[in-house]
Amino acid sequence: xxxxxxxxxxxxxxxxxxxxxxxxxxxxxxxxxxxxxxxxxxxxxxxxxxxxxxxxxxxxxxxxxxxxxxxxxxxxxxxxxxxxxxxxxxxxxxxxxxxxxxxxxxxxxxxxxxxxxxxxxxxxxxxxxxxxxxxxxxxxxxxxxxxxxxxxxxxxxxxxxxxxxxxxxxxxxxxxxxxxxxxxxxxxxxxxxxxxxxxxxxxxxxxxxxxxxxxxxxxxxxxxxxxxxxxxxxxxxxxxxxxxxxxxxxxxxxxxxxxxxxx
Length: 263
Known about the structure:
- The chain is an all-alpha fold.
- It folds into three domains: 46-115, Serine Threonine Protein Phosphatase 5, Tetratricopeptide repeat, CATH 1.25.40; 117-178; 182-260, Alpha Horseshoe (Serine Threonine Protein Phosphatase 5, Tetratricopeptide repeat).
- It has eleven helices and no strands.
- The longest helix has 59 residues, at 3-61.
- The radius of gyration is 27 Å and the shape is flat.
């Protein structure tokens, strides 16, 4: 076999390989497109479920337990694996005094979060992206108000909103959407406390604080447990740690500790 024949065969083999690669590429792209479409659909369902959850929380704040429960069920109809729906049911059960049922729901919420944490991360990142955009627009608005000599009251209100947004942005962490939210641990702690399991409740409050060092309610409850156990030194240490991290504590609780210390 001469070099020309071998060269021709080599070129034909290369051409066939390239043709196969070109055939495979559209299939790979189609598969990737299908995955993206499926992921996009899941994200849209997640957002719709999240909207019902937010409504349920608002009903809960106003004492509308039945409406909150309906919103939780609406969440699950849209997105069966939506962990927050179980968290909402846990809060409803807790307020109705069904603490054993509340414990089951919060445990389901925690277990379910792991399976959809990627969607929570996507939602978290999107929220902070919008927050940064709002921050930039508000900063421009403040500059316009100042340059046009607008009312100091308007400037002050806008500046306060800007400070609030900056405070939220300060909490941004790249992987925060992958972490179990502090509220899960906090609610879990409250339920355990009602079930007369203070040591486990304390562990949950500490987990909530680890997730959010400025979670004032978790700090207050943790300090209350230490205070009730007559661990005044431990309670005082918690007060120092909480305030050093920027948490705003219950003034009466703090004063009770100071009184016990004779200060």
